[in-house]
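re: that chain from earlier
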Amino acid sequence: MGRHILLVDDDELMRRSLAFNLEQAGYRSSTAANAEDALRLARRDPPDLILLDIGLPGMDGLDALRDFRQEADTPIIFVTARRRELDQALGLELGADDYVTKPFDMNVLLARVKAVLRRSERSATAAQAERVEAGDLVIEASAHVATLDGKPLDLAPREFAVLHALALRAGNVVSVDDLLAQVWGAEYLGEPQVVYVHIRWLREKIETDPKVPQRIVTVRGVGYKLQPHPSAPGLA
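^ sequence. v structure.
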């Protein structure tokens, strides 16, 4: 039987259409019209991925995302009619794995579903138990824990993945395309803005002065480099 996808949308026609197309593509689907029902369904029959609308009655999608994240690390794709960048950025910062904006092409959605499931499978089976140290930054990949100078960092899943990718090659430049391929998948090549946003968020969490970064430095025209031993301000 195919991977189980939970659809959460208050639009009945949308739910039926999505369920039909997902089943035609070989997935098993279940549906809910609101977040409260979706949470109950997910407890009874855990999904492999959740398609979650933001504009839900009652508990909205952003609040639902927090509750889903407290119970399991299920991949979540936002399906939303909201077009403002703030909504998209906020959803990703809270831990959503991707988003698509209504109206969307079904082939695009199916490609995103496939990409997110593939990334989830890779992260689940890779079992990257190695301890990565870059100066006072320590990353325990299998435990999904990162500490800086002994203090835990509060990182969203994608922020953690970007930092881990940089730490694995600490002291060397990692190109934007490499980060896209490793963290988001090849489908995102040509969309560097998602890397820029996550680098900005990481700098806000690990830099003494995010406006003058000494840990994650930009190598113009190439990419980013994680400095194991940050330079003094003004020397990077």
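DSSP finds eight helices and twelve strands in the chain.
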